[in-house]
Prior knowledge:
Helices cover about 35% and strands about 25% of the residues. The protein has helices spanning about 10-20, 95-100, 100-110, 115-125, 175-180, 195-205, 215-220, 225-230, 240-245, 290-305, 315-320, 330-340, and strands at about 1-5, 25-30, 35-40, 65-75, 75-80, 90-95, 125-130, 155-160, 165-170, 185-190, 250-255, 260-265. The strands form 2 sheets. Strands 3-2-6-7-8-9-1-10 form an 8-stranded mixed β-sheet. Helix 8 packs across helix 10. The protein binds iron/sulfur cluster (2 copies). One iron/sulfur cluster binds near residues 236 and 239.
Amino acid sequence: MRIMSLKRSDLSQLVKQLASDQFAVVAPSLREDLLAFYRVKSVDEIHFDHINTKLSLKEWFLPRWEAVCSFRTKKKDVELQDAPETGEEIVLFGARPCDAASLPIMDKVYAWDYQDRFWQDRRERTTLVSISCLDCDEACFCTSVGGHPGSTEGSDILLTPVGDDKFLVEVITEKGEALVKRCAELFQEGTADKEAALRAVVEKLGKKFEHARIKPWLDDNFFHPFWEKNTLHCIGCGTCTFVCPTCHCFDIIDEGDFFRGKRVKNWDACQFRTFTVHASGHNPRPRQDERHRQRIMHKYKYYVEKFGVTLCTGCGRCVRYCPVDLSIIGLLQSIDRRKASAA
Ligand code: SF4
Ligand code: SF4
């Protein structure tokens, strides 16, 4: 890893230069009251003063809707055509470390039993320049799930604001090196005390629960009145899954008619009543508390067993935006207390 520095006043030139090269620059921007990742042409369009975006960077790797192939019938034959690749190189700028950390977690599932070329292709074509967090709110809990407001996990370059006028630049991967080389005149060799810059936010974050105690309780309590008591009020809107950087379920359907159409992927959510309905009409998770139990089990038990990591980076979005205040922090704290008092 190489440590460099970048003047805040040079950010504008950096974005301009990248956007005028072959890159599409994507960054947090506020459009019609929605703070999310959009294409930008200049630094003036980028929103910096926020804890986190409302939508995560996920949709730049896993779009909400995407055609995987198209089909056309010709007499008795069916002609299939793969979806075209855009080949566009992207610099995704300004993601928080909890969003960057979601990418290597999702790489595991998209390069597991099936190699998902759509995901992998976008991962290869994207250089991720993240920015450390100097502040947090009560919904953030990265430090309780092994993260950190200055974590380099998943980023190609991490910028940490130091003082009012510059960033400490950690160049983490070859893609990061290539980007720095391209705009070499804007970067200087540098050192700075990153920990000192982040000390206040790390203290403010604290630790909300003991992560190591969660899975052992889940292992033993698939059937427990806890689920009905604490999660039956979920209204199954799916907001928590759609704003989550690590939720990755999709449905595949054919759109069109007998003669032509497309096979498309759409985001889906385990919180929807129809998510597990069988063709027979049977639903193995007929109740909302069972569907919510699945969300927690998938993130804190099944994914850990399969891939060795938790399917949650503590970004806090599901806590911030749940319309019925069903807080995953509250659930995990409650599980933690039960396990602690049983020990
Ligand atoms: S489960 Fe909630 S806190 Fe964890 S990554 Fe998803 S949205 Fe963020
Ligand atoms: S937990 Fe909240 S956000 Fe998630 S589906 Fe239920 S009501 Fe919606």
